[in-house]
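help with this record:
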Amino acid sequence: MSVRDMLRSNDERFLALAAGLGPDEWARPSLCDAWTNHDVLAHLVIGYRSGAGATTREIICHGGSFDRANTAMACALAAARSPEELLDEFGELVYRPRGLGRVFPPQLLLGDHITHELDILFALDRAPQISGEAVVAVLNTQVALPNPFVPAYRNSRGLRLRATDIDWAHGDRGPLVEGRGVELVSVLGSRPRMLSALRGDGVKLLSSRISPSRIRRGG
């Protein structure tokens, strides 16, 4: 399966899952600092349809800060549109993305979408049902490519990483960190919530690299 096909399949699965969430669950804080689950959903919609010009104008309006601009756009859209309306739009954009959503590399979009799904599900203490193939694709991309939005490349340096539920490992030297693939995706993205689920002599080092202030809301 191509990465683009994997992205579409994953989005379809997420839509089916998200349709079952209630108003109280959408209003709950996510693992993405200062964002509710509703805000996270709005961010996913924006990522699939925002143009470069609109995004640049928001960044300029917020003093050159991508994080502040990203937060303003997501929160404004969440305030204007219900989760049901956002899910309807997301469902259309999965098949007909606009703006940056048409040209952004699918492997990075897959990582963004899965990381944010985990922001929602782990905040709700729900078990993710993401395919192992998709989780492996995200982990392989995130530890191999420096990404200004997801600090997994930096966080993984000098560590041996091993997933306990899927066939994935990274690094041949250094202290060990092991756990389920989805837990590794979340923690490597600087979400500390699932640190307690990880094991190994490298967890302390990984923990020292993560703080809420380092969470980039774009990823």
In short: The first strand starts at residue 160 and ends at 163. The chain has eleven helices and three strands. Confidence is low (pLDDT under 50) at residues 213-217. The CA atoms of residues 121 and 127 lie 7 Å apart.
